[in-house]
Amino acid sequence: MKMRSVLASAILAIATAAVLFLGSEAQEVKKDGHTDRISGSAGDVLEDDPVGRLKVYVYDLPAKYNTELVEKDPRCLTHMFAAEVFVHRSLLTSAVRTLDPDEADWFFTPVYTTCDLTPSGHPMPFDSPRMMRAAIRHVASRWPYWNRTEGADHFFVTPHDFGACFHFKEDQAVSRGILHVLRRATLVQTFGQSRHPCMQPAGRSITVPPYAPPQRMESRLLPPATPRSVFAYFRGLFYDAGNDPEGWRYARGARAEVWENFRSSPVFDISAERPGTYYEDMQRAVFCLCPLGWAPWSPRLVEAVVFGCVPVVVADGVVLPFHDAIPWAEAAVFVAEEDVPRLDTILTSIPPEEVVRRQRMLASPAVKRALLFQQPSQPGDAFHQILNGLARKLPHGEGVFLRPGQTVLNWTAGPPRDLKPW
């Protein structure tokens, strides 16, 4: 333990110096008057301008599918699933929007499937399949574009825990599967696991971050010189007694392992209580733990990046937001779920220069912008990353358009409870 503390102290000292140098509002390095870009696996895409590269037609649906739901419950604008609302709003004023559907590359159907909230503010997606099916039936009966491709040139925002399976419990989501009528569409979905039955393959879907309030986080920024005196930080549930009384299904046991192994560690600051200083505390930490919960994702990843705290991702097979644009391997630390009992050794063994390098990547304003749904939208933000993803999928392949008379549309596929009129 003494050696471990020495290592932790050494890393803290150098990491603190790095923060003092970089600051929470560090600027991108400029050379010869040009801004250096952050390169991802698909090339320089963080700053790509989607305007002029694609046109999107936004279906005008009855208000009961979208705006009426927000008026009924404004909490839809602030919870982690709010991307569906902000993508719609941003598209309505975007330069990529076209009012002529005949010239559109993509069609967007704005359905707010997470706005049916419980008193505690959690989405109840039981009505979501019926709502989505009814919206598609409306689109298919009033415009010719869905039927000519069976939705292959359409995209939807499905920000549930398990995407277009529309259920918050994984076993029930998997048994339901992706809603049949969405099988050919492109899904803009929150990050999940590769090869998961509820997640489209990476080449089909666009993986996005959950919503985290930009203005609220910006208002809580500490001075750039604030030292990072906490080594590893986490606030959140370790057990979900209500849904997992045995205590080891939740987070596949990863969070329980964190608590059992490190609740008394001198280099870990962990608790189930979230204080009013949560945002400030993250800015005082070197590492922020981002373990899976019932689903592999949460706003913690976005918060950690915004506050310059190196994310420690504990979620096997996770697919992170905009993985073809953000070099996550250079910004975050990935720890296998089975290695959680060794988490202290893993983190204290990272060379100080590696910590500094990750902090430098996190200090890039371009990386921060790419994870935020700004209102109004700004160049390079999460909305523009979605548009970039759509643009990279053009032109549509030869198999997009159905031959005359060809269709596999099946309105009756799905559980009987999903077929009632909405």
TrEMBL record:
Keyword set, alphabetical order: Glycosyltransferase, Golgi apparatus, Signal, Signal-anchor, Transferase, Transmembrane
Statement: the UniProt record of this protein carries the keyword Transmembrane: yes
Domain of life where this protein originates: Eukaryota
Pfam families the UniProt entry points to: Exostosin_GT47
Signal peptide: 1-26
Compartmental location: Golgi apparatus membrane
InterPro entries the record matches: Exostosin (IPR004263), Exostosin_GT47 (IPR040911)
Entry GO MF terms: glycosyltransferase activity
Residues of the Exostosin GT47 domain: 53-350
Single GO cellular component term: Golgi membrane
Membrane topology qualifier: Single-pass type II membrane protein
Residue ranges the record marks as coiled coil: none
Family to which this protein belongs: Belongs to the glycosyltransferase 47 family.
Designated name of the protein: Exostosin GT47 domain-containing protein
Lineage: Eukaryota, Viridiplantae, Streptophyta, Embryophyta, Tracheophyta
